[in-house]
């Protein structure tokens, strides 16, 4: 398959020496794809192109290619010297390769040793069977490959000798040998290989821990001591491990004091707990195992991620994976975390450019090198995401940045794959196996380039030839990280902080905000926000560590998506409507939340049949006979192991794992879809027959069907299911069909009957208690024609919705409350079979007339009857048009109310002969009549009394105001009388006019002022 620069290894040529071949195509994906083209040739040779044999580079002789001098391969598709050695080497036709000059490398000499180069290793002689999701370890100068999915073709263990470039099988000296498995983890400690978990050949997810002694070539099943969990007293449900897990990772970490070594197991998928966000530890010395309580950033459970331990920073770097988003969905992630195994703390780092899972990662001198993986993340439609990737990414451990490294196109193999493994040996990266539609067994090698050729500081900081290059000021040269040159942020690019502000703003709780590498700080209290480096408001409190947070809960409960996983956290409680919720308020566990809750329901993995699996929200894999959660399909069948799955109980069929029960198929069309089945016609010419196991020429048991009645790739022309025949050799069934059937192939029952008439099946009458004429064509559940009548046979009244009556001897009625208006809307899909609805009302007031009103939105008919305490039901209206009707039932004509618990009068309203959708408004009311004379007398009396009361109140107010004024005057006079006083004499001189004599000549006047 080829598209632009993306290609996947072609399907190998298949030779059918019998003269016939069956090609069966299936897809287990639940989204739309663009399809494919297929072509074939008879008596031809293998070819990469469909329009010419031998890829156009050879001659086809008796089904085999004789290649031209410059091409090799079964299909002559591999050039001996690709691209004419790119002008950097000489073509050696005898050795079938380019001999490159200088630092040129690669099969076409297009790569450079200074920049790093890829090559395909070609081991001598034996090559193992391809596999994926295996485990690899390096011991001395050998590569050990353990397990892996290969469709049960590969052996449990192979060894590759780096020095001799040869593969070998391992002779096991012990009788106790583990089953082959995939999705497990392997680490090496001392001279022992430790293998944990995985999926064995039976599909069982294991929790076993095995150790292989390299010196003795013997396996040992290790019995671990499960330590008491940290929170075991608070929550006895907390698992202590080892957990049943697959798709996890394991790394060996030595303690800082070098006193103990542990295997750190991260994440994985468990059939009980779902996607695990747990960390497990195994102590090699004490053989103890525990699930540790972690802190820091809230991580989601993941499958198929990568984890590598960096001895310099003493951190485990966890990238990618298939993570749980909810109880029913899972998605790829591009997130990168660091885990401190000593403080047990998670931190969020810079996310990668793309998401992936089942990739590989190694540490290479200051870089984490990531290769390949599955990047397909489409849902309903395919948007071109690659199932098999050849991306080569580098993560700078010191600078927290990502870079994309180039990958060449190798002529002798394809790099795109997932499920492979990577190791570092002697400074080079080795990649083994994987899956690209087929299981690979090739061994790739990437040799990093040289930093010394980067003679400029800018080029040095940006160059990543497979190792981290740093500039040495002292030597004025570019050197490999770890050669005494500091790794501070000064060696990082100036774009270090780009995009981190947006990352901080997406974090919604304090605990997560302060556990990142993005300089995020939490501003404010519990309702605050996460910001980059500084708060937006100067008065906000900046929080930089978890101890300062008002609540130290970082949202870990929200990451648990099934009941069992939620129950393992003492700070969480499972609520079936709201999922996993925290019971922590501030830093205190709520007593109300800590109460015992009902036990969890079974997980999907605990169901053993299709029926009970599909009744829950689970997926049943038919050929594997396994039940898995809806969000765990990819984690359960990463290599297309499930060839048939369903979520509907109607599609369940009895079968054993790996077998096809052909007898389940009732028609020839269904039978021929299964590649293991064929159809045996009974010879009647009506389409009757049976489905049997067999091949193109005959069934497995020839005595079951004569050869002339056997159909494998096609069906008999006449397919009438035994209820009709086809005239004149045509494929058209003669109509009408017999035996109460209908349809082009007489495959359905006529209305009023139900059953499965396929392949001679019978139709049975619907039993609907005279309250319906039709039923479900398969189950026989009746479609009741009267609203309010329920039950499979229309034998019950819907008492939940206030319908009462006896459908066996009458009908069901809605009880209308007096003085209320009701609106009935019959427009839903389930209402389409209704043609009648009934009401009843009992007027309760004996001295008030009853008013009746009804409005129908579509033409329909209506009957109104009345029944008294002593008489039978009597018709008042018959077949009346129900559009709008108002009527008053007089108290003088009917006895209303209830006496001695006996209803005096009951009105019944029957609305019928309508076709939904429609709405009906109906009401019975008993409002007393208005007496105008009494009303005006009462109103006038009340008005006069109101005036009198107002006049009296006004008079009282006047008297009271006068009293207060007099009292105030008395008080003021008393105050004036009590004031002190005295007499003084004041001489005032008046200014004389201009024509007056001077003041000394005028008589002075005395003025007394009191």
From TrEMBL:
<dbReference type="GO" id="GO:0048731">
    <property type="term" value="P:system development"/>
</dbReference>
<dbReference type="Pfam" id="PF24972">
    <property type="entry name" value="GBD_ATRN"/>
</dbReference>
<feature type="region of interest" description="Disordered">
    <location>
        <begin position="986"/>
        <end position="1010"/>
    </location>
</feature>
<dbReference type="GO" id="GO:0048513">
    <property type="term" value="P:animal organ development"/>
</dbReference>
<protein>
    <recommendedName>
        <fullName>Laminin EGF-like domain-containing protein</fullName>
    </recommendedName>
</protein>
<keyword id="KW-0472">Membrane</keyword>
<dbReference type="Pfam" id="PF24981">
    <property type="entry name" value="Beta-prop_ATRN-LZTR1"/>
</dbReference>
<dbReference type="Pfam" id="PF24973">
    <property type="entry name" value="EGF_LMN_ATRN"/>
</dbReference>
<feature type="disulfide bond">
    <location>
        <begin position="749"/>
        <end position="763"/>
    </location>
</feature>
<dbReference type="GO" id="GO:0016020">
    <property type="term" value="C:membrane"/>
</dbReference>
<dbReference type="InterPro" id="IPR015915">
    <property type="entry name" value="Kelch-typ_b-propeller"/>
</dbReference>
<dbReference type="GO" id="GO:0005794">
    <property type="term" value="C:Golgi apparatus"/>
</dbReference>
<dbReference type="InterPro" id="IPR056863">
    <property type="entry name" value="LMN_ATRN_NET-like_EGF"/>
</dbReference>
<dbReference type="Pfam" id="PF23106">
    <property type="entry name" value="EGF_Teneurin"/>
</dbReference>
<keyword id="KW-1133">Transmembrane helix</keyword>
<dbReference type="InterPro" id="IPR056732">
    <property type="entry name" value="GBD_ATRN"/>
</dbReference>
<dbReference type="InterPro" id="IPR016201">
    <property type="entry name" value="PSI"/>
</dbReference>
<dbReference type="InterPro" id="IPR006652">
    <property type="entry name" value="Kelch_1"/>
</dbReference>
<dbReference type="InterPro" id="IPR051568">
    <property type="entry name" value="LZTR1/Attractin"/>
</dbReference>
<keyword id="KW-0325">Glycoprotein</keyword>
<dbReference type="Pfam" id="PF01437">
    <property type="entry name" value="PSI"/>
</dbReference>
<keyword id="KW-0880">Kelch repeat</keyword>
<keyword id="KW-0732">Signal</keyword>
<dbReference type="InterPro" id="IPR011043">
    <property type="entry name" value="Gal_Oxase/kelch_b-propeller"/>
</dbReference>
<keyword id="KW-0812">Transmembrane</keyword>
<keyword id="KW-0677">Repeat</keyword>
<dbReference type="InterPro" id="IPR002049">
    <property type="entry name" value="LE_dom"/>
</dbReference>
<keyword id="KW-1015">Disulfide bond</keyword>
<feature type="disulfide bond">
    <location>
        <begin position="737"/>
        <end position="746"/>
    </location>
</feature>
<dbReference type="InterPro" id="IPR000742">
    <property type="entry name" value="EGF"/>
</dbReference>
<feature type="domain" description="Laminin EGF-like">
    <location>
        <begin position="718"/>
        <end position="765"/>
    </location>
</feature>
<keyword id="KW-0245">EGF-like domain</keyword>
<feature type="compositionally biased region" description="Basic residues">
    <location>
        <begin position="1001"/>
        <end position="1010"/>
    </location>
</feature>
<feature type="transmembrane region" description="Helical">
    <location>
        <begin position="935"/>
        <end position="956"/>
    </location>
</feature>
<keyword id="KW-0424">Laminin EGF-like domain</keyword>
<dbReference type="InterPro" id="IPR002165">
    <property type="entry name" value="Plexin_repeat"/>
</dbReference>
<dbReference type="InterPro" id="IPR056737">
    <property type="entry name" value="Beta-prop_ATRN-MKLN-like"/>
</dbReference>
<dbReference type="Pfam" id="PF00053">
    <property type="entry name" value="EGF_laminin"/>
</dbReference>
């Amino acid at each position: 398959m080829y598209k632009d620069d993306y290609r996947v290894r072609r399907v190998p040529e298949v030779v059918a020496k019998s003269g016939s071949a069956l090609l069966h195509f299936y897809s287990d994906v639940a989204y739309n794809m663009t399809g494919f083209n297929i072509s074939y040739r008879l008596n031809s040779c293998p070819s990469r192109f469909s329009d010419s044999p031998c890829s156009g580079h050879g001659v086809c002789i008796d089904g085999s290619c004789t290649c031209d001098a410059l091409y090799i391969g079964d299909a002559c598709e591999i050039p001996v010297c690709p691209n004419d050695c790119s002008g950097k080497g000489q073509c050696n036709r005898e050795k079938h390769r380019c001999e490159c000059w200088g630092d040129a490398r690669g099969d076409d000499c297009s790569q450079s040793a200074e920049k790093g180069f890829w090559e395909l290793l070609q081991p001598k002689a034996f090559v193992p069977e391809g596999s994926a999701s295996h485990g690899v370890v390096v011991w001395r100068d050998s590569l050990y490959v353990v397990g892996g999915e290969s469709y049960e073709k590969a052996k449990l263990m192979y060894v590759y000798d780096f020095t001799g470039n040869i593969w070998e099988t391992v002779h096991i000296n012990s009788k106790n040998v583990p089953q082959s498995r995939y999705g497990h983890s392997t680490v090496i400690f001392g001279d022992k290989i430790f293998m944990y978990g995985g999926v064995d050949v039976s599909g069982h997810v294991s929790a076993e821990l095995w150790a292989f002694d390299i010196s003795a070539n013997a396996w040992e099943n290790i019995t671990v001591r499960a330590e008491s969990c940290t929170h075991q007293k608070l929550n006895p449900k907390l698992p202590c491990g080892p957990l049943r897990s697959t798709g996890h990772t394991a790394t060996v970490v030595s303690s800082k004091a070098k006193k103990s070594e542990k295997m750190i197991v991260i994440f994985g998928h468990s059939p009980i707990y779902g996607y695990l966000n747990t960390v497990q530890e195994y102590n090699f010395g004490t053989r103890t195992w525990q699930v540790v309580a972690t802190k820091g950033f809230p991580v989601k459970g993941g499958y198929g991620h990568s984890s590598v331990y960096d001895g310099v920073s003493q951190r485990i770097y966890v990238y990618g994976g298939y993570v749980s988003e909810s109880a029913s969905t899972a998605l790829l992630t591009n997130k990168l975390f660091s885990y401190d195994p000593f403080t047990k703390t998670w931190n969020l780092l810079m996310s990668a450019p793309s998401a992936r899972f089942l990739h590989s990662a190694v540490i290479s001198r200051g870089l984490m090198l990531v290769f390949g993986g599955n990047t397909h993340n489409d849902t309903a439609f395919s948007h071109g995401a690659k199932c098999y990737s050849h991306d080569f990414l580098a993560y700078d451990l010191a600078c927290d940045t990502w870079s994309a490294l180039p990958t060449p196109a190798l002529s002798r193999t394809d790099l795109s794959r997932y499920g492979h493994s990577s190791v570092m040996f002697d400074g080079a990266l080795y990649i083994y196996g994987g899956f690209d539609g087929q299981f690979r067994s090739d061994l790739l090698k990437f040799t990093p380039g040289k930093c010394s050729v980067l003679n400029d500081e800018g080029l040095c900081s940006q160059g990543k030839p497979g190792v981290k290059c740093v500039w040495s000021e002292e030597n004025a040269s570019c050197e490999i990280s770890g050669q005494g040159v500091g790794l501070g942020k000064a060696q990082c690019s100036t774009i270090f902080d780009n995009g981190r502000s947006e990352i901080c703003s997406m974090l919604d709780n304090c605990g997560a905000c302060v556990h990142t590498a993005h300089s995020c700080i939490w501003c404010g209290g519990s309702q605050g926000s996460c910001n980059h480096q500084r708060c937006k408001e100067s008065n906000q409190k900046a929080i930089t560590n978890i101890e300062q947070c008002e609540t130290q809960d970082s949202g870990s409960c929200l990451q648990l998506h099934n009941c069992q996983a939620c129950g393992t956290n003492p700070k969480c409680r499972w609520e079936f409507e709201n999922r996993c919720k925290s019971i922590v308020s501030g830093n205190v566990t709520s007593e109300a939340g800590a109460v015992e809750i009902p036990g969890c329901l079974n997980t999907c993995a605990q169901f053993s049949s299709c029926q009970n699996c599909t009744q829950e929200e689970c997926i049943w894999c038919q050929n594997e006979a396994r039940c898995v959660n809806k969000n765990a399909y990819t984690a359960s069948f990463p290599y297309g192991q499930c060839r048939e799955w369903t979520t509907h109980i109607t599609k369940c069929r009895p079968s054993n794992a790996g077998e096809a029960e052909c007898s389940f198929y009732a028609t020839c069309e269904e039978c021929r879809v299964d590649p293991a089945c064929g159809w045996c016609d009974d010879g009647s010419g009506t389409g009757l027959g049976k489905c049997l196991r067999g091949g193109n020429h005959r069934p497995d048991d020839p005595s079951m069907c004569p050869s002339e009645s056997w159909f494998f790739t096609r069906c008999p022309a006449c397919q009438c299911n035994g209820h009709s025949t086809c005239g004149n050799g045509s494929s058209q069934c003669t109509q009408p069909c017999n035996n109460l059937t209908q349809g082009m192939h007489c495959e359905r029952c006529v209305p009023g009957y139900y059953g499965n008439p396929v392949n001679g099946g019978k139709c049975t009458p619907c039993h609907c208690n005279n309250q319906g004429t039709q039923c479900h064509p398969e189950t026989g559940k009746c479609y009741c024609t009267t609203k309010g009548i329920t039950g499979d046979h229309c034998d019950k009244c819907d008492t939940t919705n206030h319908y009462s009556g006896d459908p066996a001897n009458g009908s069901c009625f809605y009880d209308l409350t007096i003085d209320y208006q009701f609106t009935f809307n019959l427009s839903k899909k389930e209402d389409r079979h209704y043609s009648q609805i009934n009401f009843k009302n009992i007027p309760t007031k004996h001295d008030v007339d009853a008013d009746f009103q009804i409005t129908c939105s579509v033409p329909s008919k209506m009957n109104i009857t009345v029944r008294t305490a002593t008489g039978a039901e009597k018709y008042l209206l018959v077949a009346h048009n129900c559009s709008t009707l108002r009527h008053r039932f007089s108290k003088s004509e009917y006895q209303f109310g209830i006496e001695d618990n006996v209803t005096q009068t009951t009105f019944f309203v029957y609305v019928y002969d309508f076709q939904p959708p429609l709405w009906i408004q109906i009401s019975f009311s008993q409002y007393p009549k208005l007496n105008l004379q009494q009303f005006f007398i009462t109103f006038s009396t009340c008005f006069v009394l109101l005036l009198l009361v107002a006049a009296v109140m006004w008079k009282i107010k006047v008297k009271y105001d006068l009293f207060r004024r007099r009292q105030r005057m008395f008080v003021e006079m008393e105050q004036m009388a009590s004031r002190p006083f005295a007499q003084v004499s004041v001489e005032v001189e008046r200014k004389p006019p201009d024509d007056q004599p001077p003041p000394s000549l005028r008589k002075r006047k005395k003025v007394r002022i009191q």
